[in-house]
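Need tokens for this chain, all 146 residues.
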Amino acid sequence: MPKELDFSVRQNCVCFNLRRVTRLVTQFFDAEMRRHGIRTTQGMLLSALHSTGTSTMADLSEILGMERTTLLRNLRPLQRDGMVSIKGGEHGGPVELSLTTKGRKQIEKTAPAWESAQRTAVQVLGEERWAALLADLEKVAVALKN
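Here are the structure tokens for all 146 residues:
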């Protein structure tokens, strides 16, 4: 007989467990990326801009599921270091984001470190389990967003 979940216990809290594991995974990926002077969050932003091409702050915020203020805070060091161009925003207009040549080179430089971390994480889970988990996470994201 399967044990019923006791939702009053923190151990069973979806948010607590996802955030705990996310922090640990981020630390693992950061250790790989740190050798290239970049954090995982910054690498994800560069990759997202690489995938979308020029994007508005609103669109990128939506794609990443990230508050605009958090997105801007994470973009500032990339802008300062010449990897991202931020234009517009005057008089409440859209803010346009794009990768610079330096940003594209940073993606190329960090790709092997990210691939190594990704490969290790997927090996731990197993490819089939990772694919199923990814699909389930997407279902949750869609359901909770609406």
